[in-house]
Each structure stands twice: as C-alpha cells, then as structure tokens.
Amino acid sequence: MITGQHYIGGRWQGQPQADACSFNPALNQSLRWAFAEAGSMELQQVTELAESAALTYRLTSREQRAAFLEHIADNIEALGELLIETVMAETALPKARVEGERGRTCNQLRLFASLLRSPQEEVHEQAQPDRQPLPKPELRLRTVALGPVVVFGASNFPLAFSVAGGDTASALAAGCPVIVKAHNAHPATSELVARAIANAIEQCQMPIGVFALVHARTHAFSEQLIQHPAIKAVAFTGSEQVGMHFQRLIWQRKEPIPFYGELGSQNPVCVLPAYLQQHSEVFAEQLFNSVVMGQGQFCTRPGLVFLLRDAGSDALKAQLQALCRQHIAWAMLTPKIATSYRQQAATLQQTAGVSLLAEGQGEEEGCFTRARIFCTSARTFVEQPLLREEVFGPATLLIECSDVTELEMLLTTLAGQLTATLYASGSEQASVRTLLQALEQKAGRVIVGQMPTGVEVCASMNHGGPFPAASDSRYTAVGSRAIQRFVRPVCYQNVPAWYFDQQASQ
Q1: CA distance 76 to 179
Q2: Catalytic residue among 106, 176, 270, 299
Q3: Read out DSSP for 27-73?
Q4: CA–CA distance, 223 with 76 (Å, rounded to integer)
Q5: Boundaries of each Aldehyde dehydrogenase domain copy (predicted)?
C-alpha cells in the first residue's frame, strides 16, 4: 500500500526518490519505502486547493464534520496490524505503546465529533429597543473557522501528534482544511493514515482540498508553505530552534498568522523530605520508569528533580543508581535524535559541579542510547544555564537544595513548562501551598503525587504553558479546548435567526 507519494486534490502523485527512504532505528538500516519530494508545483496545488475548500468546508454542518471525523477513526482502526507493524518498523516503539497511541488518536477524533454534536457555544443577547437613553441591538457572539491550517507531524508521537493527531482533528472539527507536512521519521506511517483520511473524504463527500499530505525533506518547502498567503494558522511540535525560526518567518509575512508551537519542556518534579522518607523506594521506581518511558522521548519526561539534601536524598540516589545500571540501551527514533542526546549527555558529564550517578548497560551505536542519572547542587544549577535546557532522551538531573526556600528560588529560574509536579506528605502542607503557587506560574499542568508522563485527552486537559512549552500559553494542544486555536470570534448584530438555522441545516 505504500507508494511514497503525496496526497493532493484527491490523488496520489509524485515520483519517489531513491535517496529519500524510510529508516528502521532498531536495525539501523533503511527500509524499502522511498518517498517523493515536494516542490513549487506541489506548493501551488495544495495551497490553491485548500483555499478553495475553505470556502465550502467552513459551511458544512457540525453533524457532517462529526461524521467525517468518525469515519477517519474507523478507517484508521481498519488498517489493523499493517499500521501497527509499519509504526514499529519506523520508530522502534514497542507494540503495546503503538496500540495505545492508535487508541488515543481515534479517541480524540471521536472526542471532537462528540463536541460538534453538543450545542454550539453562543452568547445571545436580545434586543432592547426601548432602552434609554439608547436602544440595544440584538447581538450574537459565535466563532468561524480561520481557514487553511498547516500541521507539522511530531517525531515522538507518530499517530497522536501526526497526520490525524490532535492538531489535525481539532482543525478539521473547527471547519479548517489541513495540509500536513509528513515527518521524515515516519513517512510510511504518515501515508497509511493519510489513506484513512482520503477514504473518509470520499465516504463523506467532502471537498477534495480539505486535506493534503506532502513529503519534504528540505526546509525550503516548509518555509515557503507557512509563508504562503493562503495559510491562516500553523501547528508545530518540535525543537525550540526550528519553532522560533518558523515563528520569525510568520512575523515577516504581510499578514501574520497564529503559530501554535510546542517547543520543549523539562517538566520539573519537586519531592519533599517527609514524603521521600516514607516512600523513597516507590518514588525512585516511578521516577525512573517515567524518565525512560519511550526511551525518554515523551514531551512530559521529568528532566529535573528538585529535592532537599539529607539522608532521604542519599537513599533515593542509591535506589536510582541500582535501577539505572540494570536498564538496557534501546533505540531512539532517529540517528539525529540519538546523536544529539549523546552529545548533550557528554556535555552534562563534563560540566563542573555535575556528577554522573549512573548509566545503563549496552553499547551506544546507531540509534541506541543508554539511560543516565545526573546530580548537581543548587549553586551549580544557578551558575550553569545549560542545566536548564531540555535534554531529549532517557536522562534526568537531580538538584539537591539546602531547604524549601532555596528550592523555591530555583523554580524562579526556570522557563515555561508543560508540567510541574510535587510530591509531599500530609505533614508538609505549609510548604505545599507556596510551592504549588510557584509551580502554577511556570507550568500549564500542575500535578501532585503522580508522574507527568501520560496526558488524559478530555475537556479539562491543558497541554501547553508559558514559553517555550508553548508559543501561546493561552491555548492547549490536547483536549476538546484545542479547537479554539483554529476559530475566531464574530459578533452578529441584528442578523435574523433564519440565517443561523439555515447554516445549521446545511
């Protein structure tokens, strides 16, 4: 089923290039699938078709869009083992993880379908023609779709943050056509999911330009795409360096547009001494499992652990050392990601005041990397800014503080985070209040007594935070509120009710 082509305007097109192959990180070798490269012709096609589709797709009823999303979910599930095996081949992720992510992807599509079937949010104020000194007009506040949206797939979630992931699902639910730039780490997976969407387009008789998938390994195509005047919003999950480059390009447009970027997070965990004395062994196991989950490639991996320097911290370090030394090296998603992790780990190990407590077993070759636990003092953490930079991979840094006051001070040095976590006992309530207040200034999700890995997809979830966790801290990338990124408010004054009734019935 894998052709290596783009999906544009209801057709599969483009000539695969022999040097643009998919890659198996577990075997450290290229796969048999080759892929096309988008250029100026594809750029013109996808933007013109998306712009044309925006005029009609925005007028589809909420029920029509809900059915469309449900058909996409059904079609993804119908791919069966072919999809699971393809994801595993391109990512080295275990089967259980891939199956779980497929479930999350389909569930969030159905979540937005359910949202569309609930009553549309509207503020409606009746006219008051007799009001003095001036009459009040009838007013309705509603939202309309922004227009064509570009979605960049994420490397670490080949399904849930990729072709049919949360960004695409929420944009389609909002009434926006979507152009997906397939991630180079899983292009075959991207094509399979795009085929599920293509089938849903036919089943639901949607405009042919409502969705497109393009492959492009050169940055030039992506840069031209986000700068094209037809594009009205961009969703991106990736590094701060690339994300800010895209943001600057968008600021240079004649018409700047929203850029929703998730650009990095260290996800600090604070553990207080009374809790650690009672639950040190359990905490160590939970922490280590969270650090190495998905070989440390979760955006919510706990990369910083703040604790007080005492006997409890010594016990924790010993327990983490034992766990880490037993852990076997495994493959990361791409050679580039693995190389970057090894370089960052080496830099940490060579930093004055930072010690390597333990590392895992096995050779670090190709995409394979070892887990690592580092430790430092509060003073070093303040003096070395690089310790506050994200290390994407199976590593974490313990920071030992003299007291809670010093811990609170260190939190003020952090940039924005997706999550911030606190472990404390009931007797530490006085410290809990001040620490929670400090954490909510830094993170989009504040957690007590649970590790941050794992994001519930629901109406109350917020997956975002102050920069660089998100480029716009007012919005979430996960949950039903993610749809708000792709709509804008419109106030209707004295517009007759039949206009809205007609739209609802279309």
Answers
A1: 18
A2: 299
A3: TTEEEEEEE----HHHHHHHHHHHHHHHHHHTTS-HHHHHHHHHHHH
A4: 30
A5: 21-456
**Token representation of residue 48:** 């013109």
- 73, 153, 180, 199, 301 from 110: Cα distances, Å: 7, 20, 20, 17, 27
Structural domains in the chain, sorted by start: 6-17+41-120+140-263+470-505 (3.40.605.10), 269-448 (3.40.309.10)
Contact assessment for residue 172 and residue 483, using Cβ atoms and an 8 Å cutoff? no
Query: Pairing mode, if any, of strands 211-214 and 178-181?
Result: parallel
Amino acid identity for residue 498 in this structure:
W
The 3-state DSSP class for residue 417 equals: strand
**346, 397, 398, 350: which is closest to 369 by C-alpha?**
346
Q: Which amino acid is at 15?
A: Q
Tokens of 416: 């924005």
Instruction: Clarify whether 176 is annotated catalytic.
Output: no
* pLDDT 10s digits, 90-123: 999 999 999 999 999 999 999 999 999 998 888 9
Digit-coded pLDDT (tens) for 13-66: 999 999 999 999 999 999 999 999 999 999 999 999 999 999 999 999 999 999
Indicate which residue of 262, 390, 400, 406 is catalytic.
262
pLDDT (mean) for 146-163: 97
Residue 297 above 90 pLDDT?
yes
Q: In the structure encoding, which two tokens stand for residue 366, read together?
A: 């190709």
Residue 503 has pLDDT above 70, yes or no: no
Q: Which residues pair with 267 in a beta bridge?
A: none
Q: Is 204 a catalytic residue?
A: no
| Tokens 């007013």, located at residue | 139
